[in-house]
Amino acid sequence: MPKHDDPIDDFDEDEGEMPWVWHARKAVERAVEDVEFDETRGVVYVMSGVDHRLNPHTEGFSSWEDLRTRLEEIAENEWVSYAPFEGGEPVFPPRVDGIVEGALDWSEIESFFERVSGPTDGEELISARELLVPGAGLTIQADVADINSELIRYLAKHPELLREMNPRKFEQIVAELFRDKGYDVEVTKRTRDGGLDIRAYGHSDLGVLLGLIECKRYAPAKKVSVDVIRGLYGVVESERASFGLVATTSTFTQDAKSFQAQNKYRLQLADFEDIKRWLRDYNAR
Questions:
Q1: 248: exposed, middle or buried (C-beta count within 10 Å: 0-12, 13-18, 19+)?
Q2: Is pTM beyond 0.70 here?
Q3: Hey, which of 96, 158, 186, 197 has its CA 20 to 30 A from 74?
Q4: 24-65 pLDDT tens trace
């Protein structure tokens, strides 16, 4: 049974969800539903908490990752509030990634951050002020073709900055690295269900290879799960692609590595160390 009254919806046991899952999902959905966008400041304001319509608590977020982290915290708090406990620990530990992704998939939040971040394909890929140390006073504005070499060389020296990029820009960096390897690349449009980020076409005397690439710009402590690898494998099979690859600024769980090993001719994994090597090898051919 709920531990406090819900101001909007009543839990329905017949829906098939456990109470802790339902309340976690509802809290995130309400927070996302009532977001306010500040185009001038590039900030999303969220009234967080399950009872925010009665007791509003507004928080502002200027990055997609910060907002996502906060939504995960909201979901986890609600989950723990309703999950059964044993020995001081919840019997069912919070698993809220899917809940947050589901709520965000239907929102305009990610497209808002992409829009206010400024550059698009054919314009400035990324400005040096986002990469150089504070106070450096240098700003680069050029076409993607003009800036890539300088940008990649800088990232090769400071690869940790990949983790601070807008996720879309990280995808563009990975696409450029594959272009440098001789592939024709296509960065896919953002879709509601996320997933596939890059198509890479390799040409040889034997024909054309199609690689499907998914990019995960994660913090070091957040490993890419086996669910991500399985999901990409399904897309590879569906599109009859030559191979699939997941590139991340983090690492992979052991289950993810095991699944890849079972499908080593169809799936590849590239962790932070691999990407650092690609950066160093850029334009070295």
A1: buried
A2: no
A3: 197
A4: 999 888 888 888 887 767 788 887 554 444 445 578 888 888
Class of domain 165-281: alpha beta
Q: Tell me the C-alpha distance between 79 and 25, whole Å.
A: 9
Per domain, the residue ranges of the chain are 13-116, 165-281
Q: What are phi and psi of 154, to 5 degrees?
A: -70, -40
More confident residue, 246 or 34: 246
Coil/strand/helix, residue 25: helix
Helices 254-262 and 226-239: crossing angle in degrees, nearest 10, is 30
Give the span between the Cα atoms of 50 and 21, in whole angstroms: 13
Q: 87, exposed or middle or buried, with CB in 10 Å at 0-12, 13-18, 19+?
A: exposed
Model confidence pLDDT, tens digit, residues 149-190: 788 888 899 999 898 887 888 888 999 999 999 999 998 876
Instruction: Extract the tokens encoding 62.
Output: 């200027």
Q: Which residues pair with 243 in a beta bridge?
A: 211
Tokens of 175: 């696409």
Tell me how far apart the alpha carbons of residues 56 and 54 are, in angstroms, rounded to a whole number: 6
